Amino acid sequence: MRTFDMFKATKWIAAVIIAIGVVLSGWHIREFSDDNLGLMIGIGFLIGGIEVLMLGAFASLMQRNTEKKAPIVEPTAEEPVV
Q1: H or E element, residue 51
Q2: Closest listed residue to residue 12, CA positions, set 44, 57, 53
Q3: Between 66 and 62, whose confidence is greater?
Q4: Predicted TM-score (pTM) of this structure
Q5: What pLDDT score was predicted for residue 1?
Q6: Measuring CA to CA, how many Å separate 64 from each of 7, 25, 67, 74, 80?
Q7: Pair 52, 10: CB distance under 8 Å
Q8: CA gap 65, 77 in Å, rounded
């Protein structure tokens, strides 16, 4: 059975978002100002892609920690704790 790997999925999504940001920024770089909407959207895609990549890495690390955690066994009244 294949398990879902969150980091691989978010890595590909982030790569697509970053690629869109590179294309948009490259297409609109000739007029470098804050009035250039295409450039600002491209920079937003670049920053958003990096954020998606970081969130995917953090979420998969947290998921692995919770899966490996051993269950806590509480002592019962019948068994004395040594």
Answers
A1: helix 37-68
A2: 53
A3: 62
A4: 0.66
A5: 37
A6: 11, 36, 5, 24, 33
A7: yes
A8: 31
